[in-house]
Write a structure and sequence with these properties.
The structure is a single chain. The chain is an alpha/beta fold. The chain is built from 19 helices and 28 strands. The protein is elongated and about 80 Å long.
């Protein structure tokens, strides 16, 4: 029975492609924690590099092994420091200085100092978000936790590793990280098992890099990522069947019986339109997407469009798609169509008037949808020419006459107006998207209306699959049992989703549905 798992962080939990920890990885860790399994993080990152770790992951970890074992942290406190021998340190530093090699050293207090010439921009690129400033300071006999050498030649690397037998050398992507003899990720794994009374057979290690191999050797089960090098894969007992972005950690732990697969009971789909179903790069719905929709329909799933577009703007969506859906959520939730009937969530005029008066005062154009579901633009603006192409339709222009609205969209690039706009919109639901700001009645979103429809149909959130790409899809994705973000989607959207599929240009929608075996 598995009682403990020790993880590498970078490219194992944290995706450098996405720039965050995938949502399904976080859910998997929560499940492990709920099952009483002890969790540890074992990383090459040094103490100063821990500041931008995912906060939830840090909270879930029972132990953090940093600097390849040089610093041990438990309950937010450093409980162990492994200091390099003074004689070995001086020997190494002399060699590095004599050869003018760039390096940094970390003293026993965790302070990092850089020495010799670094390529311009390299440090800022490597340590963005970790250090507010880079302190250059020559070594002056401090006690050190480790030394990291940057890009030595092969000859220099061999010479560094032969300087002394009192240190361990772990090869990182930029060069060797030198620590006290015997201190590496293998040490971290042994310490973790000793601290929590775990046997080798009760512990799993998970990683992607050469520095993780010592950790693999200490546990009965070791898992490498799918995109690890062949050397790392050969050193592990198991390989993730998918990338970490696709949910590889979750899948391998299910296959090993460590966690149970939670079956999906999907009965209804809520689908964004623009750049989710409709590909604006080719101004049509891709054949793969049409085929996927037809298969879903044939299998008996209910299909709903869920869009920021108004009902008028949906009319430019291909008729074939509109004929397949069972209903629509339009205007970001302010209008929905169920069983052929329209329902509205209008904005009180008292709530919208301060903002629309502000637009008039500053001669700002805005798009608005009236209570009788008509869409207009308040005045001509050059942006409308692009929107005509975007929506593939003419855009009616009519001066706003204080009609009651269900939704409106405005664009403002003047940052000096933002404070006043925020104040005037305080009683409204404002959602920022790439093309502007969507405004509706307070509490009205794609998510809230989606959940209302599901309730009316006698279904539950566990029956929902939602697919989207924009910031206005974020809450919808969070509310669905299965949520899919397009590969071309925004960061918030991807963070909210269960799964991130390929780009729309790469048939992402259809490929995601096949991934979950929802279509053939």
């Amino acid at each position: 029975m598995i009682k403990g798992i020790i993880f590498d962080y970078d490219k194992t939990l944290y995706s450098h492609e996405l720039k965050f920890v995938p949502n399904l990885t976080l859910k998997t860790l929560r499940k492990l924690k709920d099952n009483g399994i002890k969790l540890a993080l074992c990383t090459s990152r040094e103490q100063f590099e821990l500041t931008d770790l995912d906060e939830e992951i840090v909270e879930m970890m029972d132990l953090i092994v940093a600097g390849n074992g040089s610093t041990i942290i438990k309950d937010g406190q450093i409980i162990e420091k492994n200091i390099m021998p003074d004689s070995a340190t001086k020997t190494i530093i002399k060699y590095l200085d004599d050869n003018n090699l760039a390096y940094h050293y970390t003293d026993e207090e965790g302070n990092v100092h850089f020495v010799n010439r670094f390529k311009e921009g390299l440090l800022k690129n490597f340590y963005h978000g970790n250090l507010s400033e880079f302190v250059f300071k020559d070594f002056s006999d401090e006690l050190l936790l480790n030394i990291l050498v940057y890009f030595p030649s092969e000859r220099q690397l061999k010479e560094i590793n032969s300087l002394t037998t009192e240190v361990s050398s772990t090869q990182l992507f930029c060069g060797p990280q030198l620590t006290k003899k015997g201190i590496d990720k293998g040490y971290g794994a042994r310490l973790f098992m000793e601290m929590f009374n775990l046997t080798k057979e009760e512990t799993i290690s998970v990683g992607d890099a050469l520095s993780d191999i010592p950790m693999f050797k200490e546990t009965a089960i070791s898992i490498s990522t799918l995109d690890a090098s062949e050397t790392v894969k050969l050193a592990s007992t198991h390989i993730m069947p998918l990338t970490i972005e696709e949910g590889g950690l979750n899948r391998i732990l299910i296959q090993l019986g460590i966690i149970e697969k939670e079956p999906y009971d999907i009965k209804i789909f809520f689908l964004d339109i623009d750049n989710t179903l409709y590909d604006h790069s080719i101004r049509q719905v891709r054949e793969s997407t049409l085929d996927a929709l037809k298969q879903l329909k044939a299998k008996g799933y209910k299909l709903f469009l869920n869009t920021g577009r108004s009902f008028d703007e949906v009319q430019s969506v291909p008729q074939e798609v509109r004929d397949m859906v069972d209903g629509m959520v339009c205007s970001n939730g302010a209008n929905y169509i169920l069983n052929g009937k329209h329902y509205f969530k209008p904005i009180d005029i008292e709530a919208s008037k301060p903002l629309t008066d502000f637009f008039k005062k500053h001669d700002m154009y805005f798009r608005y949808v009236t209570i009788d579901n008509k869409t207009y633009y308040s005045k001509y603006h050059e942006r409308l020419e692009k929107l005509k192409v975007y929506y593939q339709m003419e855009l009616p222009i009519k001066e706003y006459e204080d009609e009651q609205l269900i939704q409106f969209i405005f664009h403002s690039s003047d940052e000096s107006l933002e404070e006043e706009i925020s104040y005037l919109a305080r009683n409204l639901q404002r959602t920022r998207i790439s093309s502007g700001n969507e405004v509706a009645r307070k509490g009205v979103t794609k998510a809230s209306t989606m959940l209302k429809i599901v309730e009316l149909l006698g279904l539950k959130p566990k029956n929902i699959c939602a697919v989207g790409d924009s910031n206005n899809d974020t809450e919808m994705l969070k509310a669905a049992r299965l949520s899919i973000a397009m590969g071309n989607g925004c960061l918030n959207c991807k963070k909210a989703a269960t799964f991130i599929c390929p780009d729309i240009k790469e048939d992402g929608f259809a490929r995601a549905l096949r991934h979950f075996k929802l279509i053939d």
